[in-house]
Specification:
Chain A: Keywords: ATP-binding, Cell membrane, Membrane, Nucleotide-binding, Sugar transport, Translocase, Transport. The complex is a heterodimer of chains A (382) and B (305). Chain A has 382 residues and is α+β, with helices and mostly antiparallel strands. Chain A has helices spanning 43-51, 93-103, 108-122, 137-149, 167-184, 195-201, 219-224, 229-234, 272-278, 299-305, and strands spanning 4-14, 17-27, 32-36, 58-63, 66-67, 78-81, 155-159, 187-192, 204-209, 212-217, 241-249, 255-259, 267-269, 286-291, 296-297, 314-323, 328-334, 337-343, 354-359, 365-367. Chain A contains ten helices and 20 strands. Chain B folds into two domains: 14-64; 96-298, MetI-like (MetI-like fold), CATH 1.10.3720. The radius of gyration of chain B is 29 Å and the shape is flat. In chain B, helix 2 (17-64) packs across helix 15 (269-298). Chain B has helices at 3-6, 17-64, 68-71, 86-94, 97-128, 134-143, 149-163, 169-173, 180-191, 195-203, 208-219, 221-236, 240-245, 254-261, 269-298. Classes of the chains: A alpha+beta (382), B mainly alpha (305).
Chain lengths: 382, 305
């Protein structure tokens, strides 16, 4: 059982500089919470505040109903996995796993049992006599996780634990972490800047920027319903495309977004539900249209989906083409920025060719250019 | 037939396989000869240079075995014509050299152990702990390195004089129980130590002292070795301070003892050199034993890795 609550938590480094500001979050038992954001957004600092490695300047940290601001790290019952593994080089794998228990004066026999049990879970039984220097990156990672598990902590804190591994091993460890979470049923708090990790691992994502929480929610919900321009652009790869547009009220109550600048003055008609949700549709108001690369289609795709005649299409010149095997990603320039489209691999358009693109208007997002808020944000979905 | 043998050579037809083998062999021999020649040249140059550097020391050893009549002649005697042990025997007879060597060992040993303990603890707090004024305090410690020892020697003497510990072991040891150089050396070494290891230990429930004893010290053996060799040799070679604070043969260190061999009444260079040769032996052997550690420790932190 572990309920962690952060109330208005701040960490001030110097009079003007905050690492984390006004952080409010409830972490429930058995959740897999991911702190994600660009580097310097305060995600690691928050984790260290929970661990007790940094001092909380302001606010309260509650763990299982106990105020923990002033508790020593070891009294908080957390276990942490570091980016560089932090294994003791002078001890064997067995020694590393057993160390925390030894300090806590657990009887030798029990230590032995637990070490073997953990080694079995992580499949490192054959490595117990080795020193960390004789292990590969993936093995070190397992040992690091093992020495966290063995203490049966209230929660695991993981600070970018997979970022030192190569891509293949990372994908493999991701799966194993998920399995482990299921098996142990312990709360996990995980810091990463990798949004794939965030999307695949988390039951709850906390998107941060410059020390502030931007949005909290389940991965799919945040992905489909981002609260603002930053969250929309941060999650997803390639990231969401943004176009500057102006609202134009047409006859028969239809509302269109008109592409600005070099955008050929194309009109994109909003469906009635979207118009209603957006609320203010003042004629001439500037907005930002956001659409994910997978919601833009070529002619074949649009015909299949039946969105061909819903809106006007855009004719663009492909400036770059990436073929990943399962999909083709085309890039085109518009409004002095490069945008991406994710298409089926059958699309054979080459660099320099022209292509007609169709937007799925049900999937668009509309942002206010000043407040950067999502005008189509749905509160109730969170 | 293996695949390699099946493959056609790019120049097959123009040259036969046996001819090709012959060319390969001659080229191999030539490359080997060239490499051997280069090694020989390098070795000769090194031996020559080492000889030039070691000449004074070798000459001293040679003099130590000469009767004094051989040294004070107009001829150049590089090697003793009638080698003798008498200089060594006389050196032991004239002054209580063994007692002096003993004193030096006690002094240098205590200073070394004291410095390792105090410097490693100080360096730990400078590199792992966060406290107010850490930067300024460290700067102050470093600043003391710029004060020459001679400048403080009088005030130090007055202090220990008032304490009434002149001519004792503590007076030889106490003022040298810590050193800014040692703190600096250890701190540099600890800086290369991943902080996450310390944090991980803290989360494991490991206290500071336990961390130092169980994790930090085992992992910084080479720094400790370097520090020990450096401190021991420095303490062994101390002259001014022991001369000032010791008065009796009971507490004199070996460096002062040696100078006692040379007096106005009995001036004998050969006797003195024999003494010097004897007392060099401990410091040289310490250096030989610890040189690997010394080099590794001194250059640690110079490059990452």
């Amino acid at each position: 059982m572990s309920e962690i609550a952060l109330r208005n938590v701040s960490r001030q480094f110097d009079p003007e500089h905050y690492g984390v500001k006004d952080f409010n979050l409830d972490i429930h038992d058995k959740e897999f919470v991911i702190f994600v954001g660009p580097s310097g957004c305060g995600k690691s600092t928050t984790l260290r505040l929970i661990a007790g490695l940094e001092e909380i300047t302001d606010g309260e940290l509650w763990i299982d109903g106990q105020l923990c601001n002033y508790l020593e790290p070891k009294e908080r019952g957390m276990a942490m996995v570091f980016q560089n593994y932090a294994l003791y080089p002078n001890m064997t794998v067995y020694g590393n796993l057993a160390y925390a228990l030894k300090i806590r004066k657990v009887p030798k026999k029990e230590i032995q049992e637990r070490v073997h049990q953990v080694a079995k879970i992580l499949e490192i039984e054959s490595l117990l006599d080795r020193r960390p220097s004789a292990l590969s990156g993936g093995q070190k990672q397992r040992v690091a996780i093992g020495s966290a598990i063995i203490r049966k902590p209230k929660a695991f804190l993981m600070d970018e634990p997979l970022s030192n591994l190569d891509a293949k091993l990372r994908a493999q460890m991701r799966v194993e972490l998920l399995k482990l979470h299921e098996q142990l049923g312990t709360t996990m708090i995980y810091v990463t800047h990798d949004q794939t990790e965030a999307m695949t691992l988390g039951t709850k994502i906390v998107v941060m920027k410059a020390g502030y929480i931007q949005q909290v929610g389940a991965p799919a919900k945040i992905y489909n319903n981002p609260i603002n321009l930053f969250v929309a652009g941060f999650l997803g790869s390639p990231s969401m495309n943004f176009f500057k547009c102006r609202i134009k009220a047409e006859a028969d109550n239809r509302v269109a977004l008109v592409m600005e600048e070099s955008g050929q003055g194309k009109k994109f008609y909003l469906s009635d539900p979207l118009t209603k949700r957006m609320g203010i549709t003042a004629n001439g108001r500037q907005v930002i249209l956001g659409i994910r690369p997978e919601d833009i289609y070529d002619e074949d795709g649009a015909r299949e989906l039946g969105i061909m005649d819903q809106t006007e299409n855009m004719e663009e010149i492909v400036v770059n083409r990436e073929m990943t095997g399962a999909e083709t990603i085309l890039y085109f320039d518009e409004q002095n920025k490069t945008h991406a489209v994710r298409l089926k691999p059958e699309n054979k358009t080459q660099t320099g060719d022209k292509i007609k693109l169709y937007f799925d208007m049900e999937k668009i997002h509309i942002f206010d250019p000043e407040t950067e808020k999502n005008l189509l944000y749905r509160e109730e979905v969170q | 037939m293996s695949q390699a043998e099946n493959m056609a050579l790019p120049i097959e037809g123009q040259i036969s396989r046996s001819e090709l083998l012959e060319i390969k062999n001659t080229m191999n021999t030539r490359a080997l000869a060239k490499r051997r020649g280069r090694t020989a040249l390098r070795l000769t140059a090194n031996v020559l240079f080492a000889f030039v550097v070691l000449l004074p020391l070798l000459y001293a050893v040679s003099i130590a075995f000469m009767p004094s009549s051989e040294l004070f002649t107009t001829e150049l005697n590089i090697l003793p014509k009638h080698p003798t042990w008498s200089n060594f025997i006389n050196a032991f007879k004239n002054v209580p050299l063994l007692k002096f060597i003993m004193n030096s060992f006690i002094m240098a040993g205590c200073i070394t152990i004291g410095q390792i303990i105090s410097c490693s603890l100080a360096a730990f707090s400078f590199s792992f702990l966060e406290f107010k004024g850490k930067g300024i305090l460290f700067m102050l410690v470093m600043a003391t390195m710029m004060v020459p020892g001679e400048a403080t020697i009088i005030s130090n003497y007055l202090t220990v004089g008032k304490m009434g510990i002149l001519d004792t072991y503590p007076v030889l040891i106490l003022p040298y129980l810590t050193s800014a150089m040692g703190i600096f050396l250890f701190r540099q070494f600890y800086m290369t130590f991943p902080v996450s290891l310390y944090e991980s230990a803290k989360l494991d429930g490991c206290g500071n002292l336990r961390f130092i004893v169980k994790i930090l010290i085992p992992l910084t053996k080479s720094a400790i070795g370097a520090m020990a060799v450096y401190t021991f040799i420095n303490a062994w070679n101390m002259y001014m301070w022991p001369l000032l604070v010791t008065g009796s043969n009971e507490r004199r260190t070996v460096q002062i003892g040696i100078s006692m061999l040379d007096s106005v009444d009995s001036q004998s260079i050969t006797l003195m050199i024999a003494g010097v040769v004897m007392i060099i032996i401990p410091s040289i052997s310490i250096f030989i034993i610890g040189q690997k550690q010394l080099i590794r420790g001194m250059f640690s932190g110079a490059v990452k890795g």
